[in-house]
Write a structure and sequence with these properties.
The protein is of the alpha/beta class. The chain contains 14 helices and ten strands.
């Protein structure tokens, strides 16, 4: 009798140990990161809340960590597992010679590069939403200097004050690209947070006359500002895609995890991103609130 009870207890322990060894259905915490400007933080929050709705625990410590130079290194080193990326600039960070105006080409080239990184990084599906670097002037400046394209700024550059992203000097699609294509010397340009309020404030105040904004910044339409056409095509296609470390994907149901993020990306359009950005800038809503409302409206929460 005692022997049979001991055998039964042993069998129970084996079942318990087996369940523990397979994870018991638990999901490892996903560490989420992003660049420092508000749209990148918003996209990270949207992806994070979508994962939480499916039972994942999300560590947000690295959201808003800094420029791409900082976040790319952090993702490669494993400081965090997942970040939203603008695939054109993401590709240009590694190899500016491969950037194009086609998002599929950019995504494929970026994947080839990231596959070779330590541990490997996967580029998930990119969204229809795209957000290019946009060089913007007021209507008064456009009229005074007859500006409609970036080429038009070349002759007037001594009379213009540029505001550029803080990483412009080392960003291959900024100073180097504009010097090569348009002959623009941005060495004395004012460095500011590009896709953020400081650049808007400087352009509004006249501290700068040409500002590097993001094309999805709602301030452009509200103020009637003029986006100068990049007539020599220096800026690549900038659709948004999640980047995920392969060592994290190896710990979860890869197909299910990727589907969560890919489904979210598929619903995000440029018009939707403009609306969400306006809610942050003009309605002063908090990023988690904006993310939650969008996910709920689109059936993800």
């Amino acid at each position: 009798m005692r022997l049979s009870r001991m055998l039964a207890l042993g069998a129970s322990m084996l079942v318990l140990l087996s369940a523990c060894s397979t994870g018991g259905g638990s999901k490892p915490t996903v560490k989420l990161g992003s660049d420092g400007f508000y749209e990148s933080k918003l996209m990270a929050e949207i992806y994070g809340q979508a994962l939480e709705a499916k039972g994942y625990t999300v560590d947000r410590t690295s959201i808003g960590l800094g420029t791409r130079k900082v976040t790319a290194a952090a993702l490669e080193s494993g400081k965090f597992d997942l970040k939203p990326e603008y695939i054109g600039s993401g590709l240009a960070y590694y190899d500016p010679t491969k950037t194009t105006g086609d998002p599929a080409t950019n995504a494929a080239a970026l994947q080839t590069i990231l596959t070779g990184k330590a541990g490997g990084i996967t580029v998930l599906d990119y969204s229809p939403a795209a957000d290019q670097n946009a060089f913007v002037v007021t209507q008064a400046t456009a009229a005074t200097f007859h500006l409609t394209t970036l080429s038009d700024t070349t002759a007037a550059q001594s009379q213009l004050k540029f505001g550029v992203a803080t990483d412009c000097a080392t960003n291959p699609v900024c100073a180097t690209a504009l010097k090569s294509a348009y002959g623009l010397d941005l060495s004395s340009a004012l460095p500011l947070s590009a896709c953020d309020q400081p650049m808007v404030d400087a352009l509004t105040a006249g501290t700068i006359t040409v500002g590097e904004l993001c094309s999805t910044q709602p301030d452009i339409a509200k103020n009637g500002w003029v986006v100068l056409t990049d007539d020599k095509h220096t800026q690549p296609a900038e659709n948004i895609a999640p980047l995920v470390r392969n060592d994290y994907l190896a710990k979860v149901d890869k197909a299910a995890f990727e589907k969560i993020l890919n489904d979210v990306s598929a619903k995000m359009t440029t018009d939707a991103l403009l609306k969400l950005n306006a809610e942050f800038v003009f309605d002063k809503k908090d990023i988690p609130v904006i993310a939650k409302e969008w996910l709920t409206a689109n059936g993800f929460a």
